[in-house]
Amino acid sequence: MQAGIIGLGLMGGSLGLALKETKMFKSVVGYDASLLHGRQALTLGLVDELVSLKDLQECDIVYVAVPLESTLEVLDNFEDVERPNFTIVDLGSVKDKIASSLSPKLQKYYIGAHPMCGTENSGPSASVKDLYKHKIVILSNLDRASTFQEAFAKEVFLAIGMQIVSMDSISHDKHVAFISHLPHVLSFALANAVLSQERPEDILMLAGGGFVSMSRLSKSSPITWSDIFKQNKEFLTNSINVYEKELQKLKGFLEEDDYEGLKAWIANANRISEFL
Amino acid sequence: MQAGIIGLGLMGGSLGLALKETKMFKSVVGYDASLLHGRQALTLGLVDELVSLKDLQECDIVYVAVPLESTLEVLDNFEDVERPNFTIVDLGSVKDKIASSLSPKLQKYYIGAHPMCGTENSGPSASVKDLYKHKIVILSNLDRASTFQEAFAKEVFLAIGMQIVSMDSISHDKHVAFISHLPHVLSFALANAVLSQERPEDILMLAGGGFVSMSRLSKSSPITWSDIFKQNKEFLTNSINVYEKELQKLKGFLEEDDYEGLKAWIANANRISEFL
To answer: Rounded CA gap, B215 and B186, in Å?
Structure first.
C-alpha cells in the first residue's frame, strides 16, 4: 500500500515520519506547493518520494495537511478518482465548512480528522516523529463516509498511537473554538499587547516561565491561523465573548475592591486541575 | 551565619533548599504561620529547624515569602532589630506599596526582591531545589538600603544561581503587570470561560498542548494572586486595557472579513520570537 501527504509542513511532515514508522505502507509519498518545502521534506526523510498532485490519485490513502483555505481546492483534484477503496483524510482544524462543501461522491471517500497536537513551529524542519503519539484525533462526519474508509482511517490513526474521538463537524468546530482557537487568540493578543509598549525589550527581558508558557502559541503561523479564525469565525467570536465576560468580572472585582469575589473567581479557575 | 525564611511554601521552601546548597550558612531556619506547613517543610528538609518569629531576629539574613497582604505585618516584627548588619529581603511580586510603607530605619535593612520564577503549585511540597537557578531576580529601591545589605543580598542571589536586574519599585510594578500578572489574568479567565460552558468535560477532554500551556497558570493559588492583583491594581488594570484593545482589533478583523489585517496582526505577534 501507498500513502500520500499533501503539504509537508509541521503536520504533514510529522505524519510522514509517523506513517513510515508503522511499516504499513510500501512507500509514503508527498507533494508540497512549495518546491523548497518539498525538497526539504525529502532531504529530511519525511517522505520517501516527491510526486505530482495527479500521481497522488494512485495512493491508497491521502492526507491533506495544507492551510484551510487551500483544502477545498486540493480536494477537488480527487473528484474523478473511481476506486472504491480510495481514502482521503483532511487534517484541518475547522471541519464543517469543508465537509459540507464536498460532492456526495467525494464524501464517501472523505474522513474529516483533527489531530489535537502541534507546536508553535512550522515548515518541514519543524517536523517531529512523535507529534501524534498518545494524542487525541477528532474524527467528524463519519456517517457520510463509507465503512471501508472509516475503518481504514481509524486503523492508521491507531497505528501511529492516536486516541480517537468522534463527533459531528458542528460540535467539533464549537468545542475546538474554546480548547484550541481561543487559546491562540489570547497568546497572539498577549504578545501584541506587550510589543505595543514603548520599550518592549525592557519588559521582555524579565520574562519567567509564566510568560514563556503564555506566549508560546503567539509564534504560530499567520497563514495557518488566519485561515482557521476565518473558517471558524462564528464559534470563535462566541468563545471570545464568553472569555471577555470573565475579564469584565475580574475588572469588576478590582474596581469594587471585592477581594473575596476575586479569590472565589480564581478558586473556580483552579477547578481546571480536576480535568487536566 | 544563619539565614531565616518566613513562609515555607513554594517560594520560601525552594529558597531553603537553594540556600542550604550554597553552604554559606551554618543553618537555615524557618517559620510558617501554618503549623502543618512548618512541619511539612521540616520533614521535607527545606529548612534545618523551625523557630519563632522572634528568634528570626537573630539571623544574619531573613527572607519573607508570604502572601503580599501579610508582608507588612511580618516586616513589623523586625522594627526593633538594632544590628547594623541585619538584612531582610522580601520576595513579593509587587514592590512599591510595601517599600514606601517601611520606616526609614527598616528601609536601610530592607531589600525588595522579586524572583521571576515559580510554578502553578503551592505549599511546602511544591518546593523544588533548582527553582531559582538561572532565573532573573529584580531588586528594587536599592538606593534606600545600606551598602552592606545590598552587597550581601546580591551575593546570596548570585550564589543560588540568579541573574540580577535592578530598577525602582514603580518601574518594577509597571513591567511585571505585563510580564507576569497579565498572563495570570488571561489563564484564570480562560479556565473560567471554558468551565462556564454547559459540559466543560466534553471540551476539556480534547485539550492538546496549546490549552495545557495556556491553562497551567490558572491552577495558581487564590490567596497569593488575589493579594498581587490587589496591590498592583492600577498597573494591572492598565495592562488589561491594553490587552483588551488587541482583542478588539482581532474582533474587528473578523467582523470586517479583513484577513490581510488579521495575518499582519498575527505576524506582528510572531515578533515575540526575536526576544524569547
So the answer is: 9
Map grid coordinates 518539498 to a residue. Answer: A38
Q: Do B202 and A267 touch (CB under 8 A)?
A: no
For residue B141, pLDDT over 90 is answered with no
User: Which residues does B56 contact at the CB level (< 8 Å), separation at least 6?
Assistant: B4, B6, B29, B31, B62, B77, B78
Q: What is the CATH number of domain B2-167?
A: 3.40.50.720
CB within 8 Å: B213 and A183: yes
| Surface-to-core class of residue A27, CB atoms within 10 Å of its CB (0-12 exposed, 13-18 middle, 19+ buried) | middle
CATH of the domain spanning A2-166, picked from 3.20.20.100, 3.30.70.20, 3.40.50.9100, 3.40.50.720: 3.40.50.720
Which chain B residue's Cα is nearest to A217?
Answer: B210
Rg (alpha carbons) of chain B, rounded to whole number: 21
| Cβ-based neighbour number of residue A188 at 10 Å | 30
State chain B's mean pLDDT as an integer.
Answer: 97
Q: If you measure CA to CA, which chain B residue comes closest to A131?
A: B209
Rounded to 5 degrees, φ, ψ at B98 are -70, -50
Interior/surface letters A96-114, b for 16+ CB within 10 angstroms, e for the rest: bbbbeebeeebbbbbbbbb
The CATH code of domain B172-274 reads 1.10.3660.10
Task: Note the pLDDT tens digit of each residue in A100-133.
Answer: 999 999 999 999 999 999 999 999 999 999 999 9
The Cα diameter of chain A in Å comes to 68
Handedness of CA A166, A167, A173, A174 (dihedral sign): negative
Domains A2-166 and A172-274 share a fold: no
Which tens digit of pLDDT belongs to each residue from B156-175? 999 999 999 999 999 999 99
Has residue B51 got a pLDDT over 90?
A: yes
**Is residue A141 very low, low, confident or very high in pLDDT (cuts 50, 70, 90)?**
confident
DSSP character at residue A114: E
Ordered by start, the domain boundaries in chain B are: 2-167, 172-274
Point out which residues pair with B68 in neighbouring strands: none
Number of residues that make up chain A: 276
Q: Mean pLDDT across the stretch A236-263?
A: 98
Pick the residue of A128, A162, A211 with the most B CBs within 10 A to test the interface with B by mutation: A211
CA A52 to CA A25: how far, in whole Å?
19
- B101 touching chain A per CB within 8 A: no
The DSSP string of A170-236 is HHHHHHHIIIIIHHHHHHHHHHHHHHTSS-HHHHHTT--HHHHHHHGGGGS-HHHHHHHHHHTHHHH
Is-contact B119 B220, C-beta < 8 A?
no
**Sheet strands side by side (includes A87-90):** A49-50, A27-31, A2-6, A61-64, A87-90, A110-115, A136-140, A163-167
Testing the interface with A: which of B114, B165, B178 to mutate, by most A Cβ within 10 A? B178
Nearest Cα to Cα of residue B250 among A82, A119, A229: A229
pLDDT at position A65 is 98
